[in-house]
Design a protein that fits this description.
7 helices, alpha/beta, about 180 residues, single chain, four-stranded parallel sheet
């Protein structure tokens, strides 16, 4: 038998899930981006664990925005963001330069032949990167913030990562009120 406390938690969790996904019917930009026919099948298989509808709803990413996808790797979220921001928006797929060997093949394949018309790749060193000032409406770090704190990670010069510098550069790249 379920206790009152367990039932209350279940109802609360259900209500949150309904609120996060209730706007995802057809004609919703996030829904449309997730249903885009060009999305690779391997990405579609990840949707149930990565919860992109909930994440993008929470961060209020909308068409026309300029979004920085930080530590994008091969670009799972870049793909969705490209379709979501549409022709009026832009997505920058940022990866740390020393990780190029890990993610370049995947990110290059993702944008090959101008496949993602609203997205571009950027490989720069965390310790020296300068984002365009007051440029981005949103900056998303999904599944990667911890990489800033790995002692084994190094800059292009071999120095330890300057996390404070990187976060300040990221902040400077955001428009006032950006996400």
């Amino acid at each position: 038998m379920i206790s009152l406390v367990q039932m209350s938690k279940f109802i609360s969790a259900s209500a949150v899930a309904i609120c996060l996904t209730s706007g995802l019917q057809a004609d919703n930009p996030i829904h449309d981006a997730l249903q885009h026919p060009a999305r690779p099948s391997q990405d579609l298989r990840l949707d149930h664990v990565r919860k992109p509808a909930e994440v993008l709803t929470f961060f209020e990413v909308k068409p026309g925005m300029k979004v920085l996808d930080v530590f994008a790797g091969p670009g799972y979220y870049t793909e969705i963001l490209n379709h979501l921001v549409g022709s009026e928006g832009k997505v920058t797929m940022f990866n740390h330069k020393p990780w190029e060997a890990y993610s370049k093949a995947g990110s290059d394949a993702r944008v090959k032949g101008n496949r993602l018309k609203n997205a571009k790749t950027m490989f720069e060193d965390i310790n020296t990167v300068e984002f365009l000032s007051n440029h981005y409406d949103a900056s998303l770090i999904i599944l990667g913030l911890h990489d800033l704190y790995h002692r084994s990670e190094k800059s292009v010069s071999g120095d330890e990562l300057d996390t404070a510098y990187f976060l300040k550069a990221l902040y400077n790249g955001m428009k006032p009120g950006g996400v």
